[in-house]
Design a protein that fits this description.
Strand order of the largest sheet: 5-6-7-3-8-9
Strand content: 25-35%
CATH superfamily of the largest domain: P-loop containing nucleotide triphosphate hydrolases
Number of domains: 2
CATH class of the largest domain: Alpha Beta
CATH topology of the largest domain: Rossmann fold
Helix content: 25-40%
Number of strands: 13
CATH architecture of the largest domain: 3-Layer(aba) Sandwich
Length: 321
Amino acid sequence: MSFIEVDELKKSFIIRKKREKGKLFREKQTVEALKGISFQVEKGDLVGYIGPNGAGKSTTVKILSGILTPDGGKATVGNRVPWQDRKEYVKHIGVVFGQRSQLWWDVPIIDSFSLLKDIYRISANDYESRLKELSDALQLDELMRTPLRLLSLGQRMRAELCGSLIHRPELLFLDEPTIGLDAVSKLALRDFLKWENREFGTTVMLTTHDMEDIAALCSRVMVLGHGKKLFDGKLPDLLEKFDTIRTVSVKYETEDPVLDMPESVKTGRNGDEIVITYSPKEFPTPELLKALQNAGKIREMTLQPENIDHLIASMYKEMDL
């Protein structure tokens, strides 16, 4: 049996529309956030969970973390039902919401960690060793006496990660953990998550709109849209379906190389540089490179694949998300 088992999970919300002029009451509308999704996650996996806004990603995380109760279906994490016996269940998970905080705003972060120690009933020896482990990995030593409100966004996210992992959870949920972070902070956060997953076998479920996070961290990705699971597999397999256009820039030793290209390949010039746009499906890259080499001696060449964000945007558009 898999570590996470989700079977036909459903969840709906009732929202009230803006009251129309002349009407006494506001109309109600039922929104189906999850329409029967199913998946399994093995222990120690690092899984990306992606989709456009309103797809149902955060709803799934809230159900699997025990915050929400589903309207239908089943879900177990380590043979535990998240929304039942929640006090026992949350001892084994950690959650980081990019726009929420579990640490106390006006006190030094070391005091928040100390309070979490008591909440999770961690022994003194385990707490000290784990805190040192995390503070070294996340570079928090110099920040321990600083109130959370005085930290930068990147520093706060590192502190939040430390707080969520202080009790050594088996499973870590990350909901938009890199939102608003600069490039340096993002790289440091990714390196830490790889380390935590590798060293302790912590299962990580990551929801994000930053596809660079998914590409850097996750060996598996699930795509959610309109409350349904639309894809489950490896990221390269997903991107290959939408990697429709590539660009090659070539500079030759000769001024006028003779290029023999099919009609589907578009060529243009930018000074002494020849710019070629093509579809790998219509004209495979190995054949293109062979044709470029036959045209003359190449001085410089750059192959630019489509940006991941553009590929995902194309995917959402094709899936009508």
